[in-house]
Amino acid sequence: MCQLLGMNCNVPTDICFSFAGFRARGGLTDHHRDGWGIAFFEGKGARVFLDPSPSADSPVAELVKHYPIRSLNVIAHIRKATQGAVRLENTHPFQRELWGRYWIFAHNGNLKGFAPALSGRFLPVGNTDSERAFCHLLDTLAQRFPAGAPAAAELHAALRALASEIGAQGEFNFLLSDGDWLFAHCSSRLCYIVRQAPFPVAHLADEDVTVDFNQVTTPSDRVAVIATTPLTDNEAWRQIPPGNLLAFHDGAPVALGATATVAQDYPRRITDE
After folding, report:
1. Which residue from 10, 179, 240, 244 has the least number of CB within 10 angstroms?
2. What global pTM score does this model have?
3. CA 208 to CA 177: how far, in whole Å?
């Protein structure tokens, strides 16, 4: 399965530490060698890096690893192709404009036979199920809210319904952000951690790298990191229960509407099926 990585913060923060471990999963510590990408929101803009090469071998990934871009919202993806050739146009995350804002989307899973009718406003460039799902999602939102962006609770409810509808076609773990909110939907496997004072000393699971966050943060900082599986081996990650859509804002999950957003302690050991 593909690998997802997201970050949502209350102050602009770099993702270098998490990305160092995440990058290794693209051909070094795991077998996902079909491309990778990462998107950083900066104000109303989005800085996107894409490469169809394995992230463990990519010079672009090496640049990102050492480039401390500070952002409130980041989405990254390492691909294991299920639909669509290994090409740049099929590399996540995908980017589109809606309501005068950029939206960034990355998907993990396989939506077999998924062929939604599209209005033409949002069309896939590549031939992945993921990009089709993203276009369908934005198409539906644009038609449902033609006057512009709805309130956060309304948006969350609409996304939750769409996630359930699309998820009925297969596995639909995804990360989605408009630069303000970051939404994380768990279909099968997705977890997160919130780091805030007192900050931990964290050690990566995929690289022998340790960081003391007390040395690189302020007491008021708060950062939420979302990943397919835990990136560190000495912290208590939380599992998002399958079927849940979490909304992250200012570095923490926010309860919107009546949906359950209770997360559980994530098991230290993961066994792939």
Report:
1. 10
2. 0.93
3. 30
CB-neighbour burial class of residue 76 (10 A; exposed 0-12, middle 13-18, buried 19+): buried
Q: Are 105 and 134 in contact (CB under 8 A)?
A: yes
- Name 111's bridge partners: 170
Q: Per the residue annotation, which of 2, 9, 135, 191 is the catalytic one? A: 2
**CA-CA distance, 18 to 229, in Å (whole number)?**
12
| Share above pLDDT 70 across residues of the chain, in percent, rounded to a whole number | 94
What DSSP designation does 28 have? T
pLDDT in tens, 207-249: 999 999 999 999 999 999 999 999 999 999 999 999 999 999 9
Q: Quick one: how far is CA 139 from the chain centroid?
A: 20
2 labelled catalytic: yes
Question: Three-state DSSP class for 86?
Answer: coil
pLDDT the model gives residue 31: 83
CB-based contacts of 138, cutoff 8 Å, min separation 6 = 96, 98, 103, 121, 122
The helix (run of H) or strand (run of E) holding residue 148 is none
Q: How far apart are CA 102 and CA 48, in angstroms?
A: 11
CA distance 142 to 140: 5
Is pLDDT at 26 greater than 80 in this prediction? yes
pLDDT digits (tens, 9 = 90+) for 167-182: 999 999 999 999 999 9
